[in-house]
UniProtKB/TrEMBL annotation, chain A:
InterPro entries tied to this protein: IER
Region Disordered, residue ranges: 68-130
Protein name: Immediate early response 2
The organism's taxonomic lineage, starting at the top: Eukaryota, Metazoa, Chordata, Craniata, Vertebrata
Membership in a protein family: Belongs to the IER family.
Pfam families assigned: IER
Bias type Basic and acidic residues, positions: 101-111
From TrEMBL, chain B:
Keywords, alphabetical: Repeat, WD repeat
GO molecular function: protein phosphatase regulator activity
A GO cellular-component term linked to this record: protein phosphatase type 2A complex
Gene name per UniProt: PPP2R2C
Species this chain originates from: Nothobranchius furzeri
Lineage: Eukaryota, Metazoa, Chordata, Craniata, Vertebrata
Family listed: Belongs to the phosphatase 2A regulatory subunit B family.
Coiled-coil boundaries: none
Subunit structure comment from the entry: PP2A consists of a common heterodimeric core enzyme, composed of a 36 kDa catalytic subunit (subunit C) and a 65 kDa constant regulatory subunit (PR65 or subunit A), that associates with a variety of regulatory subunits.
Domain of life: Eukaryota
Gene3D superfamilies cross-referenced by the UniProt entry: YVTN repeat-like/Quinoprotein amine dehydrogenase
Protein name: Serine/threonine-protein phosphatase 2A 55 kDa regulatory subunit B
Length: 178, 450
């Protein structure tokens, strides 16, 4: 997943630059902060898109497997599940880009695991599988093959954590703080 | 174009020791500007100082020896300040210098840092009065009993002294960082532009200014673009242009409304979707905009290109010049080392036939609009001795056919960047700022414009 790895790296670098600009002599440069934010959003969108593409490709494979093995309704129904978290995730998969950009209103935003679609894949194996995957989880879930280091980056996709400065703040507020 | 250019002795900005590679940050030149006749050249640096060079009159005995530029005056324009309310330091770096057209014996220039614009008067004194009746030579009041006769003070010649004094200070008008100043052709007003606003000043009035452009959104979270540069039209005092971080140019007419938020013309080139990358927004941000001397064209610079726009055509630029397209595949590393945020300036020659802009590795480029020829030259001590002819340089893309003396993209020194260049208003003389050194090159074949 070269594109998403690059996207993550770009986001990490952007965050680092945004943080260090706070201590720069002369104050925060609005133009530079804006460009960094745009790059971050762009990288984030591409990252999500890459994730979705990977997911749909995997989903299509899974669906084929399911069609053959079980007569139950396809995973598509589960995508329409009324649970709020699932709804949040439904938004993230087909309507990824606009939904994500305006996702500040999602109540479960903090808990929405960006690897949601991956969970769908596992879910579609059968309705018998337990609900727990859709229950809001406080901790970000590990996707196979992703190291904890990269996980930390993904969990700040939508928030800029100020670390010692306080609670996480939304991306746009970083600019507004100038 | 294609004439050989002569290197005059390189002028040290501030005592740079040739043996050392150490560069004091305060000495880094941050702006270069010729005055309207080209007789004077001003540079500003990160330490808040301004150095003015004056061209020596051409020697009578050697008619082909063009005048050289020597230091005329040095002064401290801005000092570091501290904004106690916002708890941040205001840098003394001179962002821009603009000369006023000369109207009497003195010269006037505007210099600005991030927050404050100052008007400086530069005048010469080569005589002084002597023979006062009430004061002695040192200025002390004389004992009246020693005065037995009256004399008329006479003016005696003295060594030339250049005096610089601040005449106006235009402060407290900008919340954000000032990036441009531009003197209007009416010679009475000028504008100062920061990231979100442009203010119009009268040169004689310092306690108020008019806001003519305000693009600050009601909610700062909705911010999508900032102003990057602004300039008045050279002839029409009602027109000005400003560029944005989105790569657009807006031409505004001050006759239309008091607040020129609504543009008269919007110059924008649609983005090529196939060229989109993570860094598309950054590299499309316009770093400089300059009207041609004729007032008919606009020259803009973004990270990889320089574009000439016709004021009558808003849909796309007239000409696009690739300054260093070999960097297109290196954008990620340039982003990591911050170079992608570098703001290069651009310049027209006097006849608007050639445009010039800087690049990395102390290279700068010139493009002839008529012949479509271009050249890459280098400003460095090693490659140019005084009076030597500059040798054209070439950068070859990695893996490309390599000639002798070519530089490969990977060996470019990105710490050596030429951000600031200036072209004499009428002659083929250019000033190039390479970090803390100023280079002045003259065309040895002829000094007139072709």
């Amino acid at each position: 997943m070269e594109v998403s790895a690059e996207a993550k790296r770009i986001m990490v670098v952007a965050l680092g630059k945004l943080y260090s600009s706070r201590t720069q002599r002369g104050g925060v440069r609005l133009h530079r902060s804006l460009l960094l934010t745009l790059v971050m959003k762009s990288a984030r969108d591409i990252y999500h898109a890459a994730q979705t593409a990977a997911e749909s490709a995997a989903a299509v494979c899974e669906q084929h497997t399911e069609m053959e093995t079980c007569a139950e309704p396809s995973g598509g129904q589960e995508l329409q599940s009324p649970s709020s978290v699932a709804a949040g995730r439904t938004e993230t998969s087909p309507h990824l880009l606009p939904g994500d950009a305006d996702s500040h209103s999602g109540a479960d935003k903090e808990n929405t695991c960006p690897f949601g679609p991956a969970q769908h894949t596992r879910k579609r194996r059968g309705k018998a599988t337990a609900e727990p995957d859709f229950i809001p989880c406080k901790k970000a879930k590990l996707e196979c093959g992703i190291s904890p280091q990269q996980l930390h980056v993904s969990s700040v996709l939508d928030y800029v954590k100020c670390g010692e400065l306080g609670p996480p703040i939304p991306l746009q507020t970083v600019i507004a703080a100038c | 174009m294609g004439e050989d250019t002569d290197a005059t002795p390189t002028l040290n900005h501030h005592g740079f020791l040739p043996d050392h590679n150490y560069v004091t940050e305060a000495d880094i030149i941050s702006t270069v500007e010729f005055n309207h006749t080209g007789e004077l050249l001003a540079t500003g640096d990160k330490g808040g100082r301004v150095v003015i060079f004056q061209r020596e009159p051409e020697s009578q005995t050697e008619p082909f020896s063009q005048g050289e530029y020597n230091v005329y005056s040095t002064f401290q324009s801005h000092e570091p300040e501290f904004d106690y309310l916002k708890s941040l330091e205001i840098e003394e770096k001179i962002n821009k210098i603009r000369w006023l057209p000369q109207q009497n014996a003195a010269h006037f220039l505007l210099s600005t840092n991030d927050k404050t614009v100052k008007l400086w008067k530069v005048s010469e004194r080569d005589k002084r009065p002597e023979g006062y009746n009430l004061k002695d030579e040192e200025g002390r009041i004389k004992d009246l009993s020693t005065v037995t006769s009256l004399q008329v003070p006479v003016l005696k010649p003295v060594d030339l002294m250049v005096e610089v004094s601040p005449r106006r200070v235009f402060a407290n008008a900008h919340t954000y960082h000032i990036n441009s100043i531009s003197v209007n052709s009416d010679y009475e007003t000028y504008m100062s532009a920061d990231d979100l606003r442009i203010n119009l000043w009268h040169l004689d009035i310092t306690d108020r200014s008019f806001n003519i452009v305000d693009i600050k959104p009601a909610n700062m979270e909705d911010l999508t673009e900032v102003i990057t540069a602004a300039e008045f039209h050279p002839h029409h005092c009602n027109l000005f242009v400003y560029s944005s971080s989105k790569g657009t140019l807006r031409l505004c007419d001050m006759r239309e409304a008091a607040l020129c938020d609504k543009h008269s013309k919007l110059f924008e080139e649609p983005e090529d979707p196939s060229a989109h990358s993570f860094f598309s927004e950054i590299i499309s941000s316009v770093s400089d905009v300059k009207f041609s001397h004729s007032g008919r064209y606009l020259l803009t610079r973004d990270y990889l290109t320089a574009k000439v726009w016709d004021l009558n055509m808003e849909s796309k630029p007239l000409e696009t010049y690739q300054v260093h397209d070999y960097l297109r595949s290196k954008l990620c590393s340039l982003y990591e080392n911050d170079c992608i945020f570098d703001k290069f300036e651009c310049a027209w020659n006097g006849s608007d036939s050639v445009i010039m802009t800087g690049a990395y590795n102390n290279f700068f480029r010139m493009f002839d609009r008529n012949t479509k020829r271009d050249v890459t030259l280098e400003a460095s001590r090693e490659s140019s001795k005084p009076r030597a002819v500059l040798k054209p340089r070439r950068v070859c893309a990695a893996g490309g056919k390599r000639r002798k003396d070519d530089i490969s993209v990977d060996s470019l020194d990105f710490t050596k960047k030429i951000l600031h260049t200036a072209w004499h208003p009428t002659e083929n003389i250019i000033a190039i700022a390479a970090t803390n050194n100023l280079y002045i090159f003259q065309d040895k074949l002829s000094s007139e414009m072709h």
